[in-house]
Amino acid sequence: xxSTRIRxxxxxxxxxxxxxxxxxxxxxxxxxDFDLYAMKFDPVMQVEELKGxxxxxxAPAELRVYIDAxxxxxxxxxxxxxxxxxxxxxxxxxxxxVWRPGVAFDLPTDGGTIKPALLNIRRMGVVTTFGSPxxxxxxxxxxxxxxxxxxxxxxxxxxxxxxxxxxxYSVESISNEExxxxxxxxxxxxxxx
Length: 193
Fold this sequence. Notes:
Elements: E1 2-7, H1 14-26, E2 30-35, H2 47-51, H3 64-72, E3 75-81, H4 89-98, E4 105-106, E5 115-116, E6 123-129, H5 134-140, H6 144-153, E7 162-168, H7 176-191
Parallel strand pairs: 1-2, 1-3, 3-6, 6-7
Antiparallel strand pairs: 4-5
């Protein structure tokens, strides 16, 4: 299986990204790994780009590598910390700029329902961490990050065979043993992904 993995390095969970990547490679999957910060991805959509965003328009040249990988992949895995109940700004900007009309979806001219365009993607995985406790994220906030990724973005993909959502809550207050346990869980789940 081919896979495009988007990640953000964090001081708290450097292993989780490595564990998911290692498990996929160990299975023989071909992996394209994007560290948006290391690649200096610009999450800001410029005015001209925004004007052309209402319909399919040529993407800026600097986005081509991300678009090509997205259209090639059979699976996408996103590894990131959750901040303020959402994804980091650079990842949000990646979705705004790369998952664009003509790439992730097609906008009908009659104003009807958008049509998914990433039919090649059949699996989606998420590994994320939270500073807040599970009850705050899931009960009080209603898990907005999970909804955006597994309802909204996944709907732009083909009929997904499988999705995986691994979250670790209260990350600042857990022991090293609990960190290791979560890292092992990530590795084990991605061995079967």
